[in-house]
Design brief:
The complex is a heterodimer of chains A (about 400) and B (about 210). Chain A has about 400 residues and is of the alpha/beta class. In chain A, about 35% of the residues lie in helices and about 15% in strands. Chain A has one domain (about 5-200, about 310-395): Rossmann fold, CATH 3.40.50.1820. Chain A has helices at about 15, 140-155, 170-180, 200-215, 230-245, 245-255, 275-290, 295-305, 315-320, 340-350, 370, 375-395, and strands at about 25, 35, 40, 45-50, 60-65, 95, 100, 105-110, 125, 130, 165, 185-190, 325-330, 355-360. Chain A has an eight-stranded mixed β-sheet, with helices on both faces. In chain A, a hairpin with a 5-residue loop joins β2 (about 35) and β3. An eight-stranded mixed β-sheet of chain B has the order 3-2-1-4-5-8-6-7, sandwiched between helices. The chains are: A alpha/beta (about 400), B alpha/beta (about 210).
């Protein structure tokens, strides 16, 4: 239940929403290539995305969902290809009558640039060489990811989004979006996130990347013909996964319980004695099946580099021109993106007189809470979206 | 022990709200400390065109204010206002809340750090009925403005108008305006205010010279 919340989605949207499908857009056709922050240009690129609900006549009901580090475009509903298929990663939050109500809103979610779930990334074929990019893929930042999302929105014929919503790395995208494309965003929902990645976050990312580099299967990123850095990537995931949990949740779920027996085996050959070990191994193994190590390297680096205040005098200064109203929420047990970092953002927004609401939600599930504890989130996000839409329809007096 | 419990009557709330509304300039920036469900915020926004931010500790209140389309920050006033930048607001409102926080002195100072002016409404413990109740019954008084049994009262501090003036002087805040509320009316310069007012309204300002 901790990994990405998929398992926790109890309300089925299989019937209510019908099957959903991933679509693909080709953007940045030359000569309108995407200019990366680091200076490289790239185009055309493919962006994988899904949409739920429908765009209304005045086109003021589009909500964009930014996924976190290892998410994908499949945020809600079912693809309908498998019998025991799991719904999208935020299915408990997005759907008819849910927190982001697809009966009212047109919801878009796209796989990030540099990812490996359908959008162009290091595992894609470089049209210039006919080979996979591998580490030749341009250096990637959160801004580059947002540039691609922003272009997708224009491609879909939407001038302005009612809101951009995201948690963790997704929240960073929301912030970058509101700052760099102020006219495109009316509402910004930033969950379990921060205006910059703190040293602790960079530290954990560094260890994860080191695990991948140190794997003999990594082969300097050109591993697509072989098995790839399976152990390294799995280890990276195990480490990262611990940072998504909390002391309480890990204690509650596993404690010191042993995996196969009531007694210690006193056997150094035995790899998994405790339940928590077995759980982490399982998470690592499962992750390798669905994720590309090169994407992991690029995306964690993008996260490391993220600092909204970069290039400005201060964080408040960076936020001076945003037009969106903000909803910021943190979780009391999240030690990867602790509440203090959200408060720093809120302070800066208040300083420049922006509309912001903030709360710290109590939830035992650590950083992953935003994927699991959807009820309190629903109670805040639903009225926030409703009011943001209303404010856009009546001439603003605030 | 008396089992009588009065509820804070709505007219009192209404009166306090009206008084506050009257002292806030149009289109100003206002922070409402202990904003509750955002009742006053809504009026300030609708009737005065103010940019209002609420602060409240209760999650249901935070949700209620968001539901009004207004801005609210969840925070415990007992922890001070560390997350609110200095000089961000023209007015800070603290209505019927000061007596309920753990460190009133600190909060008042904080209030006038984040805002240029403070609007405070507090119950007056110097009211004759309060004194009479203590003297006659020898028990913690229960009155209309202090309607709680001592053990379930949210009020942690009891001050009279005299006490409040002393405090303002000691922390270097100037009382620009004082309006005792007597029998549901705000009165300008009444006789024996500290005996007759069941609560009082204050407009506060920083003094330029901070006392040592």
């Amino acid at each position: 239940m901790f990994a990405n919340g998929k398992e926790n989605a109890t309300v089925s949207s299989r019937d209510a929403m019908g099957n959903v499908q991933t679509k693909y857009a080709t953007l940045f056709e030359p000569p309108n290539e995407l200019a990366f922050q680091a200076g490289t240009i790239l185009g055309p690129t493919t962006v994988a995305y899904e949409t739920y609900g429908s765009l209304n006549e005045c086109r003021d009901n589009a909500v964009f969902i930014c996924h976190a580090l290892t998410g994908d475009a499949h945020a809600a509903g079912y693809h309908g290809n498998e019998e025991d298929e799991k719904p999208g990663w935020w299915d408990g939050f997005i759907g008819p009558g849910k927190g982001i109500d697809t009966d009212r809103y047109f919801v878009i979610c796209a796989n990030v640039l540099g990812g490996c779930q359908g959008t162009t990334g290091p595992g894609s074929i470089n049209p210039a060489t006919g080979e996979r990019f591998c580490l030749e893929f341009p250096f990637l930042t959160v801004s580059d990811i947002v540039s691609a999302h922003s272009e997708l929105v224009r491609h879909l014929g939407i001038e302005q989004l009612l809101a951009v919503v995201g948690g963790s790395l997704g929240g960073m995208q929301v912030l970058d979006w509101a700052v760099r494309f102020p006219d495109q965003v009316r509402g910004a929902v930033v969950l379990a996130s921060a205006p910059k990645l703190a040293a602790q976050g960079i530290a954990f990312n560094a260890v994860g990347r080191r695990a991948i580099y140190a794997d003999a299967g990594f082969a300097n990123g050109k591993y697509y013909d072989g098995e790839g850095p399976r152990y390294g990537l799995s280890l990276a995931r195990m480490i990262a996964h611990i940072t998504y949990l909390s002391e309480d949740s890990i204690e509650l779920k596993f404690g010191r319980r042993l995996q196969d027996s009531d007694r210690f085996a006193f056997d150094m050959q035995k790899e998994t004695e405790f339940q928590i070990e077995s759980y982490l191994h399982y998470q690592g193994k499962r992750f390798v099946q669905r994720f590309d190590a090169n994407s992991y390297l690029y995306l964690t680096r993008a996260m490391d580099y993220f600092d909204l205040a970069e290039g400005h005098d201060s964080l408040a200064d960076a936020l001076r021109n945003v037009k969106a109203r903000f909803l910021v929420a943190s979780y009391d047990t999240d030690w990867l993106f602790p509440t203090g970092q959200s408060k720093e953002l809120v302070s800066a927004l208040l300083q420049v007189g922006k509309h912001v609401s903030f709360t710290e939600l109590p939830c035992p599930f650590g950083h992953d809470s935003f994927l699991i504890d959807l009820e309190p989130l629903t109670r805040m996000v639903a009225p926030f979206l409703e009011q943001t839409q209303l404010a856009g329809r009546t001439p603003a007096t605030e | 022990m008396s089992s009588t419990r009065y509820q804070l009557p709505d007219p009192t709330v209404q009166l306090a709200d009206d008084l506050i509304m009257r002292h806030i300039d149009n289109n100003s920036r206002v922070i409402d400390l202990g904003c509750g469900d955002g009742r006053l915020m809504q009026r300030l926004s609708d009737e005065r065109g103010c940019h209002v931010v609420g602060v409240d500790v209760e999650q249901h209140n935070v949700t209620a204010v968001i539901g009004r389309g207004l801005s609210v920050v969840a925070a415990d006033l007992n922890q001070g206002l560390a997350d609110i930048p200095s000089d961000t607001f023209d007015f800070a409102v603290l209505s019927q809340t000061l007596q309920q926080v753990q460190r009133p002195k600190q909060l008042l100072t904080e209030m006038l750090r984040v805002a240029n002016r403070g609007l405070v409404v507090v119950p007056n413990f110097g009211h004759w009925r309060v004194r009479y109740e203590v003297l006659r019954r020898g028990r913690t008084p229960i009155t209309q403005t202090l309607p709680y049994e001592w053990h379930e009262s949210p009020n942690l501090h009891f001050m009279s108008m005299h006490d409040f003036r002393d405090l303002m002087q000691s922390i270097g805040l100037r009382i620009v305006k004082e309006r005792p509320i007597i029998n549901g009316r705000a009165v300008d310069r009444p006789w024996a205010a500290n005996l007759r007012a069941d609560s009082a309204f204050y407009l506060l300002e920083r003094t330029s010279v901070t006392p040592s």
